[in-house]
Structure formats: structure tokens, C-alpha cells
């Protein structure tokens, strides 16, 4: 799945944390902004309550259920800046995408 397809699927499934802005930074692949304030998903960079930094391949493994989010965090494959509770709620986001 390409990043634009993922962003569209996230929008369709309302994959955001209500009232919060969470940015997923894929480094050289760019970002996806999950905007729970304006209820939209974009590929535009900006300020966020929480930024999650993860390689695209590791994100794909997490989305496919091959890599646990907590394991990714503990091994340094996933880094969180800002409000950690928003990152914890993203497990529900991933579940929406698999569902």
C-alpha cells in the first residue's frame, strides 16, 4: 500500500484520536497527519500534539500485525514525541485499518 492509499483508508475509517492532532513521520516518505480536531487525514506537515516517528516498512509490519507496537517502541523502531497517551490510542487506529 502506498502512503496516499493509507491516508485515504485512514480518512475513510476515521482513524484519528478525537480532539488531538497526531503526526506519523515516515522520514523520507513524508508524513500523515491524523487531525482529530478537524476530523480529517492529510499528508500535510504541521504542528501536532504527538509525533510518531517510524520507518515505512516497520509501519507496514505493524499494520499487518507482524510487528507489535509496544515491541517496536521498546526496540527503538518507533519513537514518540509529545503526549504518549495519544500514541497508545493508535493501537485502536491500526485495528480500524485491519477490520
Descriptive labels:
99 residues; Nonspecific Lipid-transfer Protein, Chain A; 5 strands; 39% helix; globular
N-to-C series of helices and strands: HEEEEHHEH
> Uncertain runs with pLDDT below 50, 5 residues or more?
none
Structural class: alpha+beta
Q: What share of residues is helical?
A: 25-40%
Strand residues, percent: 15-25%
Q: Total number of β-strand segments? A: 5
CATH topology label: Nonspecific Lipid-transfer Protein, Chain A
Major sheet: 5 strands, mixed
Describe the secondary structure blueprint for this structure.
Blueprint: H1 3-12, E1 21-25, E2 31-35, E3 40-42, E4 50-54, H2 56-63, H3 69-74, E5 78-82, H4 84-98
Parallel strand pairs: 1-4
Antiparallel strand pairs: 1-2, 2-3, 4-5
How would you describe this structure to a colleague?
This protein has a single domain (3-88), classed as SCP2 sterol-binding domain (Nonspecific Lipid-transfer Protein, Chain A). It has helices at 3-12, 56-63, 69-74, 84-98; strands spanning 21-25, 31-35, 40-42, 50-54, 78-82. With 99 residues, it is α+β, with helices and mostly antiparallel strands. Strand 2 (31-35) and strand 3 form a beta hairpin.
Summarize the structure.
The chain has 4 helices and 5 strands. The chain is of the alpha+beta class and about 100 residues long. Strand 1 and strand 2 (about 30-35) form a beta hairpin.
Amino acid at each position: 500500500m502506498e502512503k496516499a492509499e493509507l491516508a485515504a483508508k485512514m480518512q475513510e475509517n476515521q482513524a484519528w484520536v478525537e480532539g488531538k492532532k497526531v503526526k506519523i513521520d515516515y522520514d523520507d516518505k513524508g508524513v500523515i497527519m491524523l487531525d482529530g480536531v478537524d476530523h480529517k487525514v492529510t499528508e500535510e506537515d504541521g504542528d501536532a500534539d504527538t509525533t510518531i516517528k517510524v520507518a515505512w516498512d516497520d509501519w507496514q509490519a505493524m499494520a499487518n500485525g507482524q510487528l507489535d507496537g509496544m515491541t517496536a517502541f521498546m526496540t527503538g523502531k518507533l519513537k514518540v514525541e509529545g503526549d504518549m497517551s495519544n500514541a497508545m490510542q493508535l493501537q485502536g487506529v491500526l485495528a480500524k485499518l485491519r477490520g
